Amino acid sequence: MTALAPLVATLACGTFFGAALYINLVQQPAALSVGLDFAARYFGPMYQRAAVMQVSAVLVGTIAALLAWWQGGGVRWLAGALLLFAVVPVTLLVILPVNAELLRLGAGPAAPDTAELLVRWARLHSVRTALSGVAFLLFLLPSTR
User: Fold this and answer.
1) 135 close to 83: Cβ distance less than 8 angstroms
2) Domain assignment present for 25
3) Within a domain: 66
4) Residues whose CB is less than 8 angstroms from the CB of residue 83 and which lie 6 or more positions away in sequence, other chains included
5) What pLDDT tens digit does each residue of the chain (145 aa) get?
6) What angle do CA 21, 80, 91 make, to 5 degrees?
7) Rounded to the nearest 5°, which phi and psi values hold at 108?
8) Taking the model in full, what pTM does it have?
9) Residue ranges making up the domain that contains 52
10) Count: domains in the chain
């Protein structure tokens, strides 16, 4: 197994996990603490910028981890690739409807469900954080070879 695929997988997964963890522990709580008006206005630009980086990190990390597994790196690379890629269906099937609701025309602090949607979004996003965190830990395990 060449060292490049595991390195790229670990870097991409760590980037995703770090960003996701930051969003859950710092960014979203801080936005809500400033007030619902700010948090509602901030969500759209934050989401659109984060989506590009996070999609890229997931795809690069998954492909590199699959390559590491294929090159004989062991089952942890396959498991990590599957866990990291699992954020895609979680996002598309579970989180995207909440995103759409938050981004819909007219959604803002005056909408009665905005606060609940922002809190729900953060809770659902924590699933992505956990999946990528476990994948990252698998990638950090020392090789048994």
Assistant:
1) yes
2) yes
3) yes
4) 131, 132, 134, 135, 138
5) 578 999 999 999 999 999 999 999 999 999 999 988 888 888 888 988 999 999 999 999 999 999 999 999 999 999 999 999 999 999 999 999 999 988 885 556 667 788 899 999 999 999 999 999 999 999 998 765 5
6) 55
7) -170, -170
8) 0.91
9) 4-140
10) 1
